[in-house]
Amino acid sequence: MSLNKKPKVYHSRPADNPLFESAVAVYGSHVIGVVLTGGDSDGADGLRSITGAGGVGIVQCPAEAYNRSMPIAAMEEDHPQYILPVEEIGPLLSKLVSGTRREALKVHGR
After folding, report:
1. Which stretch of DSSP H or E encloses residue 72?
2. d(Cα 87, Cα 14) in Å, to the nearest integer?
3. What is the rounded CA–CA span in Å between residue 58 and residue 63?
4. pTM across the whole model
5. How confident is the model at residue 110 (pLDDT cuts 50, 70, 90)?
């Protein structure tokens, strides 16, 4: 991982899309992407790359987000497996990375 001074992506640097896309290039279906509150639509294309590679997409429930733009864009651009309140994301990540993906899917109704 490194920082660079290349042009901004979606008006920001650092940006989620290049981060997500580079993670997919290296780890493929093992990537879990999380889009939280934030402005603009950064993260939406990257999340689509993650789920398209067989990884897991998680989006904070827009109703509780301070700025709903990024979660809504991610939901419109992709079909994330999870749309959750922020307090449920940490426990889900723990289940997913501990190898209990099937259990996590059952708990969250998928």
Report:
1. helix 69-77
2. 25
3. 15
4. 0.81
5. very low
pLDDT value for 31: 94
Contact residues for 80 (Cβ-Cβ < 8 A; gap 6+) = 35, 47, 51, 57, 58, 59, 74
Residue 30 has pLDDT above 80, yes or no: yes
Amino acid identity of residue 12, one-letter, is S
H-helix or E-strand containing 82?
A: strand 82-84
Please work out, in degrees rounded to the nearest 5, the angle formed at the alpha carbon of residue 39 by the alpha carbons of 61 and 34. 45
Distance of CA 108 to the CA centre of its chain: 16
Task: Provide φ and ψ at 98, rounded to 5°.
Answer: -85, 5
**Which tokens belong to 92?**
């889900």
